[in-house]
């Protein structure tokens, strides 16, 4: 095999390796994003156990509403109950606009 043919083959292999590495990085980024998401199950458990403190709102990223629930004891429990129902039916999602990574 001539040196020119070897160089062309090496360039072709190099491009293939770069494409594989790029695809692997892309897949790793997607997997990393999914791992950072919020769980609907954890949000529901937090709303059920400590809903009157608004901890589930902090978990979902709604800090302002979490503080309001903390100060009003979850609207005397009514606000916390409504949030629990909304989390279970999937209406109350994380603030970042994404969906839950783990669902019921």
From TrEMBL:
InterPro entries: TM2 (IPR007829), TM2D1-3-like (IPR050932). The chain crosses the membrane at residues 41-59, 65-85. Keywords: Glycoprotein, Membrane, Signal, Transmembrane, Transmembrane helix. Residues 37-85 form the TM2 domain. It comes from the Bacteria. It is a multi-pass membrane protein. This is TM2 domain-containing protein. It comes from Adhaeribacter rhizoryzae. The lineage of its organism: Bacteria, Pseudomonadati, Bacteroidota, Cytophagia, Cytophagales.
